Amino acid sequence: MRQHLFKSITFALVSVLSTVMFTSVVQAQTDQEVTESRLKGVEFLKSQQKEDGSWEYEGHPVGITALCTMALLENGIPVNDPVIRKGREFVLKESDKLKSTYDLALAILLLSRVGDREDKVQIRRFAARLIAGQTTTGGWTYSCPLASASSLNNPRARPKLGTSPGDNSCTQFAVLGLWTASRSNINIDNSMIGVARRFVETQNEDGGWPYAMPKDDKAEPSRNSMTLAGLFCLTVARAAKIRSLQEEQEKEGESRASDQKEGETLVSDPIFAKGLEMAGKYAAGINASSARYFLWSTERVGVLLGLEKLGDTDWFSRGASALIKTQKEDGSWENSRGKLADTSFAILFLRKANLGSDISRMLNGEPEKKFQIYTQAKKPEFEKLEDAVTAAKAGDLIRVNGDGPFRIPHVEIDKDLTIEAGFGYSPVFVYTRGRNKLGLRARPERDPNVRHILRVSKGTLALEGIAFEFDPPEVGKEIPWAAIVVNGGNLKMLNCTISEQNDKGMAAIQFLKPTDSSITNCFFVGGRAAIEIEGTGKQTVLVDGSVLFSRKIFSILKSSGASAGGDINLNISHSTIQGEDVFDFERFVKNIHVKSDHTAYKVDNLGLSMLSLKSSKENRSFEGDGNVYDVDKWLGMSGKADPGVTDIKSWSRFWGNTDDDSLEETISFVQRRPNNSFNHRYKPEDWELSEDSKVAARQYDLGVKSFNVGAGLGFSRFRSSILYNEWKQKQVAEAK
């Protein structure tokens, strides 16, 4: 009989787990030890990949390849790394006849995590097979029929449901795959109704769940991994029901009750509560003999529900200690079927990978007061951002638990502060006229202090997952609006969006005093400039993984004071830039240094106002690596082109051969967005390289990875990756 992925786990090892219950205290490990263990596991998995991109596991090359690739992605290997590309390509190549429940679910997880828009077709195809594979018992067996994607819209075209009881291991994988697929607008409501019924009706007296359904009214004993599987499946089924109700209410114009806390009602449900109690008993027995499949099941439920403890047990500390103790010298973990599956499960556990982070919002409901100081003991909540900022202390984190749009009246930041989107939310800040320092209604046409949404005057402001829609009112004259002003201190932006559509000529960000700021995974649309910098004092601005679409991209302004300024460092990496002028520099500002790598420039003028002296590099420098340029005019001073710089070769030669690895080529994106056509509805994926672009083959090392860009879904994806933890750690280190 054909062997199936993880069969040994769900039979032999799981049966061992149900009997091996030690209660000895396991000492928690340090963060450094956890990180080192994860990285050793990562290196082992990378070393085991075959030349064709696969990993070897008898009978399930697609499933194990998807699992290993996803584990590497979740542990920080970038999506453009060859090991990830080859893994994805193998999964796609072997997908036509894919029928295994495990393989289908894991393939969906991987393709969704990679985020390539082309893979949505394949995700729908796999989801259709999973939906067709559900049996009348609400569960799944090892295999699914080859249903077509068209059956998603025509249930009558699906094969008749089988009657096999299935098993709870296959079922939890199918549920995880379908929930992930539902993010691509695939309706799984009916499937989840069957799942909920299955686990409600088959819970054992002790609160746990077995591997298989009862036979002849005789129940199998509960098993630890299957008990966690039952809790996970019930959670997803509840989330699917909540989402369906919300969609119905939105269609009918109804609003959801703000005090509804589905997480509380789920945990207090007698069946779920009894299962959670049993899970706590199993967690107390975590030790060096615990199977990695069980630990991974525990981790998913713990992270999904935001539970640091199951029962009285710190499940992560015990699990991490057990894993570190049992890791082999080569970085692997092993069971009777080999090392690959167990190593993948282990590093996913140690990573605390949350494969269902969008469920958190549905369980927690909508708070009445949206702005919460999350780092203070009582986690106070406020109706207005400005009140939360006033109450916050240096170093606090304000979490925005709502979408808005929130009308923000030029709020001042004068301390270290983080403002981030709450889990599952996509908050939008819009400009509104508030009151000035005298308490009078703001007059932006007269008062320069009220022409922004946020202004940093001191400290470091970190913004995560916030969208700014800047459409200021008509006030009868042109005003130098700016969405965010940095007039002292620093700005660290992650996965933020700033957009304009009423064409009032904003600057997305203004830096008016020396700063050390970074813009990562951001999306700027519209305005007179993406970034304006007043040329005074030493400044560093980093732009990484971002899309900038504006009239001018980097505009350096002459100092308003006596100083001519100097030492401005612009570092641009893996970004996509479209506009009229990229480097628009005031000629009297001294010492401007630009470094750019793997960035796509589709612009009219690259640097027609870049130089301080005609045909001279004085006070200017440029270093490039792996960029692609689609430009009309290259270089000059005060808007006049230098006749000696007309192509990539002369451009690089002018700067001392510092850009020899870059190309001059036509760039086309999947959506054509004419310069000066700005709209809030634009999306980062509009700037993906089109298939017919001459540089399409370089999509993995050129420009942005749009699935990780901007607020909303982009932030949600990035937040669930190990790269987010690394970004946070970097901010902490810089703060010290």
**Which residues sit in consecutive blocks of at least 5 with pLDDT less than 50?**
1-27, 256-260
Counting helices, strands and paired strands, the structural category is alpha/beta
What is the 3D shape?
globular
Strand content: 15-25%
> What's the number of domains?
2
* Biggest pleated-sheet summary: 16 strands, mixed
Mean pLDDT: 87
Tally of strands? 27
What's the number of helices? Answer: 19
Kindly report how far apart the N and C termini lie. 60 Å
Oligomer: single chain
Instruction: Return Rg in Å.
Output: 27 Å
Estimated helix fraction: 25-40%
Q: What would you say this structure looks like, in words?
A:
One of its GO terms (molecular function) is transferase activity. Residues 245-264 are annotated as: Disordered. With 736 residues, the chain is of the alpha/beta class. It has two domains: 31-249 and 264-361, Alpha/alpha barrel (Glycosyltransferase); 382-437 and 449-474 and 485-735, no CATH class. 32% of the residues lie in helices and 18% in strands. It contains 19 helices and 27 strands. It has a 16-stranded mixed β-sheet that branches. Strand 1 and strand 2 (381-382) form a beta hairpin. Helix 5 runs antiparallel to helix 6. The longest helix has 28 residues, at 224-251. The radius of gyration is 27 Å and the shape is globular. Mean pLDDT is 87; it is low at 1-27 and 256-260.
